[in-house]
Design goal:
Layout lengths: L5 H13 L13 H9 L3
Length: 43
């Protein structure tokens, strides 16, 4: 069970979807190890 409501989760996904240029600050790709670590982080 998430500690966030369905409304809060939906709002986060909406912001992420609408802010498509999130990575315009860094042109280099994200290190795959960082992606794995983020995916494994507790919710």
């Amino acid at each position: 069970m998430s500690r966030f409501s369905e409304t809060e989760i939906a709002a986060l996904y909406r912001v992420m979807r609408e802010r498509q240029a999130m990575r315009h600050f860094l042109p280099d790709p994200i290190d795959p190890r960082v992606v794995i670590r983020l995916q494994a982080a507790p919710a």
